[in-house]
Design brief:
This protein has 146 residues and is mostly helical. Helix content is 72%, strand content 0%. The protein has six helices and no strands. Helix 1 packs antiparallel against helix 5, helix 2 packs antiparallel against helix 3 and helix 5 crosses helix 6. It starts with 13 loop residues before the first helix and ends in a 5-residue tail after the last helix. The mean pLDDT is 86.
Length: 146
Amino acid sequence: MIPNPLLAAPVPQGPRAYRQRLRRFGPVLGLLPAAALGGLAWLSLHDNVSSVRGVLGFLLAVLAAPCLLAVGVPLTTGAALYVVAFVASAVIWLSLGSLAARRATRRPAAMWSDFWREFVWLAAGVWVGVVLALAAIDLLLGRVFV
């Protein structure tokens, strides 16, 4: 009789330590998608000469830092406003990462895929809100956005 083979490798240091690692590093990993979007926005806006790259860069920037809209970045200027928007957006992404880590570790056998699944749902809510806010701003101001 052949014994049942293990379907997966054992969890290093046990499931409890793995769950703690998810909870410890989850908030920091919540910053990674925003940092990637911010980097793409910077690349799109750097040496920009086309309106398509400008709109794409602006959209990526507000998806990466949703508080940019709250401080009125397209209509106002100032380095202090950018710093406030970036710090507030980082707090939002850290909070979403923490919440996603807590929700992912509700089950005893939590994995990083559980964390990313929870985080994507939470981030999608923020991103849909940003797009709806941009559409509302476009309708309220009465200007053509693109």
